[in-house]
Amino acid sequence: MPWRELKPMDLKVMFIAEYLSEKHSFSRLCQDYQISRKTGYKWVERYELEGPSGLDERSRRRHNQTYVVPLVVRQAIIELRSVGETTPGPKKIQNDLMKRFPGQDPPSKTTIYNILKAADLITPRSSRQRVAVYPKPLRKAETPNQLFSADYKGQFLTGAGVWCYPLTIMDHASRFLLACESMANTNLKETQQTFERVFREYGMPERIRTDNGVPFASTGRAGLSQLSIWWLRLGIIPERIEPGRPDQNGRHERMHRTLKSTFPNRRQLLGRLSKNTLIDLCSTTIMSEGMKRSGRKHLLHATCRQSGSTQRSCRKWDMLAILSVTWLTVVESSIEVACAFTWVTCSGIRTLEWS
Q1: Whether residues 183 and 256 fall in one domain
Q2: Strand, helix or coil for residue 268
């Protein structure tokens, strides 16, 4: 037998019936129905005046409407909605109404929105599904293998034009970097293989702390993803920080900062090669963001003379060098890195790689 669902009207009738039976005090009766005594007296008064019909829901609209939008203004709002190359919103329509009716106060932006919505001129936006917030507070780790933290260090475009997603895994207590893998994407299979290798080599932790991104979390029930469900089956509790709060995983973010500082920046890498070497190798224009305009023009002329192209065509392809860094392996404290330069030349795209 299914459970019977009680509607508000049914509860009101039951309340009046128990009130007429006089079995309990009025305070006890209101407490049982989880209403205030003021609300209880209101229902009793309406029942005594109008009978059972007095218990029906009533409109909560104001008895006196002090301001009503004139029909001319309503028509102007609907007309202004379709004026212009772009669809104006309530704010722009309000400004246009002030110009069209200078001696009259315009309706509020909320009123304009309600008028547009009643005229079916508002396209409802699809609600964005968000990851469920982790309900429990985050705890610190005192000993190794109590808590692992994992994250992707952004994304980088390599010299070959392929995106690189470095996956980093760190022990929270010792701050030991367990893995730093160059991933081609953030799918489940490659990420799971990396965690399997870490678990076999260092053991399994009690908890793993991540952010709310893919593949660590999803918009499903309780924010669980296939990876976090796999952790639960292994006896590992997945923890997630709050959205927009990377400071809750501050140790891991600080490790990312240290890891990034070990790589030379674009200016340092450009300093390794002389100007003549760059011209002889690729006949291109490589400019730094901090270079002055005079030096930029001088190097541009030298490059065009070397390649036999006109200055106008070279200026068309004058672009900044793109530095792409790929993490290959991490062995204890030493990091092997491969770097590549990609730039646009007057004759095409050239790539110079070294490791």
Answers
A1: yes
A2: helix
Tell me how far apart the alpha carbons of residues 33 and 280 are, in angstroms, rounded to a whole number: 88
Give the CA count within 13 Å in the CB-facing half-sphere of 60.
Answer: 1
DSSP at 228: H
Which range marks the domain in which residue 294 is found?
266-354
Strand segments, DSSP code E, in 184-268 are 207-210, 237-240
Q: How far is CA 127 from CA 124, 170, 215, 334, in A?
A: 9, 35, 22, 46
How does pLDDT run across 1-29, given as a tens digit for each residue?
Answer: 456 677 888 888 899 999 998 888 999 99
Amino acid at 248: Q
The number of domains in the chain is 4
Looking at the predicted structure, is the pLDDT value of residue 163 above 90?
Answer: no
Does residue 228 sit within a domain? yes
8 Å CB contact between 168 and 256: yes
pTM above 0.70, yes or no: no
- Residue 139 within any structural domain of the chain: no
Classify 48 as helix, strand or coil: helix
Q: In the structure, what pLDDT confidence band is assigned to residue 220 with cuts at 50, 70 and 90? A: confident
Residue 47's CB is within 10 A of a number of other CB atoms, namely: 19
Contact 187, 246 (CB under 8 A): no
Q: Which residues contact 69 (CB under 8 A, 6 or more apart)?
A: 107, 111, 115
Q: Is residue 128 part of a domain?
A: no
Say yes or no: 170 and 238 in one domain: yes
Query: Using CA atoms, how far apart are residues 81 and 79, in angstroms rounded to an integer?
Result: 5
Query: With contact defined as beta carbons under 8 Å apart, do 148 and 208 qualify?
Result: yes
Q: Do 169 and 254 have their domain in common?
A: yes
Measured at the CA of 285, the angle between CA 281 and CA 289, to 5 degrees, comes to 130
**Contact criterion met (CB below 8 Å) for 231 and 240:** no
Output b/e per residue, 182-194; b: 16+ Cβ within 10 A.
Answer: bbeeeeeeebeeb
> Is residue 348 assigned to a domain?
yes
Residue 14 burial (CB count, 10 A): 12
